[in-house]
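Weekly structure sync - notes
Attendees: PM, LS, DV (DV joined late)
Agenda: review two folding runs queued last week.

Item 1: First target. Sequence and structure tokens pasted below for the record.
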Amino acid sequence: MPEVELSSGTIDYEDTGGSGPIVVLVHGLIMDGSLWRHVIEQLRADFRCVAPTLPLGGHRHPMHADADLSMRGIAALLGELLEHLDLRGVTLAMNDWGGAQLLIGSAHDERIARLALCSCEAFDNVPPKGAARLLPYIARVPGGIDAALLPFRFDRLRRLPMTYGPLSKRPVPREVMDRWFAPATGQRDVRRDLRKYVIDAAQGRRDLLAAADALRAFDRPALVAWASEDRLMPRDHGRRLAELLPHGHLVEIPDSYTLIPEDQPAALAANLRELLAR
């Protein structure tokens, strides 16, 4: 997997290459770019798919000790990646983590031609509904992040209501989850990075609320794909986002929880193709 050295540290990314339109696919907390593996298989024949692994706990390379790993800092790092790889005319798609919305109206906005918000954090839903709401408090307790990650070492505990059960309707394969959780459970400095992000949740919430106003000025094609059975991202948020975006188009994806790329990759890929045709 290619790597790139950015201001905060080394970032891994998948790049299918080719001369087709570029789709940048962004994952959520304690995951990596492999969240999008099924969607990439559906798109790679016609599009260049770039899936970075952001420092959200599933990253293999710890960031520099002084790195800004707030939501805004990680969004800026994503923008830096677009610039470093000279990606233009990008279709930016995000699922679960909503921080990529902070690129709209930023210095990197001109690189984004289309936007896809796929059952992701929005408005004040940071951290999302459910057990994740406790993470900022747990992270302030010495050893709290270590204790919170303990269940993820065991396959049978990963789909509990208090862990990743509400994220996907269908079990994520064990080898994929092993890959997601290995960095945070195995590397102290990755846990340090995760704690830095989680503990800044209140500021992330304020930043994401403010970003909603910038969406009003995004005058390019936009897709809002929301899982009809989502337990973590309020259904009303999908409608509100589509109304904010001047060219927003709302699609509800049935038979799916938050991780639409896991539960309904073919349906999501079809809607992304329609977006790319606009």
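Item 2: Second target, run right after the first with the same settings.
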Amino acid sequence: MKRLPITRFGWLCAVLYTSSLLFLLFQGGKTSLMLFVMLNVLALYLLLGRWSGIGSVRGTRKLEESHAGALSFTAGNRLRVKLQIEIPGFWPLPYVIVRERLARASGGECQEYELSFVPDYKRRGTIRYETAPLRRGRYRYQPTLCSTRDIFGLFEHKGSFDNGLDIKVAPRTIAIREWRTMRRSRTGVSQQRVASLWARETTQIDGVREYIHGDRMSRIHWNATARTGQWKSKEYEREALPRFVIVLDAQASSYRTAEGFELAISAAASLLDFALRKGMPVGFVIAGATSRWYGVERPPVNRQDILEQLIDLEAEDGGSLGDTVFETLNRFGTGTHIVVVSPRKDEPLARALEALGASRQAPSQVLVAERNPGPDEAKKAQQWQRLFRANGWELISLSRLEDLPGALEVGTA
């Protein structure tokens, strides 16, 4: 399809050149000679344009100083990019069109930017631009396309260079100062003690144990050491903190819009940061087609590992949130505070929460709600709130991430 216009144009050039040559041969004179010379000069210029050098264009892409060296960002941020382009050769170029493509690994999204610059005498140019706000996910720059035309705009010459750059965009989070429910749970001593890896020591001496290499001098029990002739250390009582488990609903059937799913991920990530900042033992569950568990074993969870999962997480078909909540109780055991982040308000989830209540657990839910719900949705939300009030559970209704800190500090919504 593209060869037909070029062939016609080639035939037209051949006819014009032949006509000019015949006009010079049969008519003669200064006019025909000048016309023939001008036509040859124009043809030579257009022909040499094929060796303009843009086919071997080189370039580098860098982030501006505010993001220098960083390849991980938070959703909603913009990237300030600096492109430095160099075109080898010597043939003059009036301008260069640059087309940038930033592709998202999942979802098939692609941001395209078309820019231009006029090369300097060294055939170099610098372009600065700012991207649109980025969504959560992984991005990669595609090969950069460069093109130019001759001064008459007759022919287009193209080239490209690949200076790939991988970018990770983590979910947006918000700082949580305090959670009323967690503050109440820390006022007393829990009936069960957790492992020493997850417990905080108090100043109350609870006994004597064998000396462990690396114990501070202040921990040595001198009386017991002198009496037994072996090094002994003081053992302190430990404050039993409640185990904090976040269950994120990743089922596609739970969400009507992509914005609701992003809000759930951001809320779960914010709760995770809050618990880790408070030094609480944390567990994290992604309830999708196949549930993923973090923090079940003794080693504490790694925030970076969970964020890597959240960056790539997409809503999945299949699975049951109620069954995952049941299994969460079995895997983490009693003494845990389970927080479900989901817009679901159905019978299977209610039965799972009642099972938690029967096990003397106090579950909570961050209910991802619509900003403008319909009459049926509002009625269903009221019924769900009455269920939580009747059982003494905590329900946080959330339609904007900015409302999360205030809702947690006030308590049950």
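Discussion on item 2: The chain has three domains: 54-170, 180-184+241-410, 201-239.
Action: LS to circulate a short write-up before next sync.
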